[in-house]
Design goal:
Layout lengths: L7 E4 L8 H4 L3 E6 L15 E7 L9 E3 L5 E3 L12 E12 L2 E5 L8 E7 L2 H18 L3 H8 L3 H12 L4 H17 L9 E5 L4 H10 L8 E3 L6 E6 L3 E7 L3 H8 L1 H12 L5 H18 L8 E7 L11 E3 L6 E3 L3 E4 L2 E4 L7 E5 L2 E5 L4
Parallel strand pairs: 9-10
Antiparallel strand pairs: 1-2, 1-8, 2-7, 3-6, 3-8, 4-5, 6-7, 9-11, 11-12, 12-13, 14-15, 16-17, 18-19
């Protein structure tokens, strides 16, 4: 039998269990009981400290279960609060000490949580091994940093990262980031590239790049479906076919132009009229940045309509054999091979039509003889 006596208690605004990614953004107070307060001597010398606490509202435990993204893990391979001994441990930043109270940031424990122990964080270990820890974590969860931004609604960082794919900042990319983040927070399932989370976009403009980046559903992993309808609309769903469809309101364009008229003035000159004068391009990019980041904080309901939907989905993508074209000698998917004179020939060498996705949508390209 082990007896543990609390040394203090947590004070913050979270009275019920909440999303830890949201909790760590706020400050908490740790009130140390008088008989243990002397133990805080020189704690101010530690910038980061480890807090051990008791999940006092956790009932029972399970040795294996789903984590946030739906993946099943053992309790000792996760940070689940439902643990055999109901113990939690979190590294926090020490903001200040006020007598027997510590002001900290980064604590994922709710109000009235019993604190069991405090010790300085081993910073030297993280300095020496931090990069290795991050790399190993990303090897097993390559979208970890993106997931963290989604859960904390860090739209600014998501937009910055999405622009690495898209190449520039614009309202279309911002809209894609906004709708994808909103849907991911509602669906609460992450993309691992295995076609269990599906994004359906109804346009192939800037909007779709924000969707691909945030959701992780792409053409390359067969989790992005393109319905060539020319609408700023997007659906996120899973294999249970229950999803969320978000579409730009009919008056959203007028609303955005009223908020940022200068950007749309330069958009007309640079994009619509194709005037790529260097001075115009510089101003266009400047106002594009300002407008894009400002939009992140607009009223979502003034730009988009949201509804729950039931979707029709294709089966998982089939795996096709590759066949060598007898003319060009290159491998091609067997579904793109024809037989001519009893020999396999690819569509290009056979001069046959093939589908092509361009800025105009999906076209059938005719080969010239």
């Amino acid at each position: 039998m082990i007896t543990i006596k609390p040394i203090g208690i947590v004070r913050n605004d979270f009275v019920e269990p909440a999303d830890p990614f949201e909790m760590v953004k706020h400050q908490s107070r740790i009130v140390i009981y008088p008989e243990f307060s002397e133990g805080l001597y020189k704690i101010e010398q530690s910038e980061f400290i480890d807090i051990t606490f008791h999940f006092h509202k956790s009932e029972g435990y399970r040795l294996k279960g789903p984590i946030y993204d739906g993946e099943f893990k053992g309790v000792f391979a996760s940070r689940s609060p439902r643990r055999p001994n109901a113990l939690g441990n979190t590294t926090v930043k020490l903001i200040a000490r006020e007598g027997n109270e510590l002001i900290v940031k980064g604590l994922d424990a709710i109000n009235d949580t019993p604190v069991l122990d405090i010790k300085p964080c081993n910073i030297s270990f993280y300095k020496e091994h931090g990069e290795t820890i991050d790399i190993n974590r990303l090897k097993f969860s390559p979208r970890w940093n993106i997931t963290r931004c989604i859960r904390t609604n860090d739209l600014d960082t998501l937009l910055l990262k999405a622009a690495m794919l898209h190449g520039h900042f614009c309202p279309g990319l911002t809209m894609g980031v906004m709708v994808a983040t909103y849907a991911m927070q509602k669906i609460r399932k992450l993309s691992d590239g295995m076609e269990d989370l599906i994004a359906i976009t109804e346009t192939n403009n800037c909007f779709s790049d924000g969707i691909q980046f945030v959701t992780g559903c792409t053409f390359g992993n067969n989790a992005l479906i393109f319905n060539d309808l020319g609408k700023n609309a997007f659906t996120l769903t899973t294999r249970n076919r229950k999803g969320i469809r978000i579409v730009a309101r009919n008056d959203s364009g007028d609303y955005l132009r009223q908020q940022h008229p200068l950007f749309y003035s330069y958009f007309q000159k640079v994009v619509v009229e194709r005037n790529h004068d260097p001075e115009l391009l510089t101003k266009f990019r400047k106002y594009g940045i300002e407008t894009s980041f400002a939009m992140l904080h607009f009223d979502f309901s003034k730009i988009f309509n949201v509804k729950e939907v039931t979707t029709e989905l294709p089966q998982y993508a089939p795996i096709h054999d590759s066949i060598i074209c007898s003319v060009c000698g290159e491998n091609a998917m067997d579904t793109r091979i024809l037989e001519q004179d009893h020999s396999p020939v690819c569509l290009a060498c056979a001069k046959k039509p093939f589908g092509q996705l361009t800025g105009h949508g999906i076209l059938i390209e005719e080969m010239n003889n």
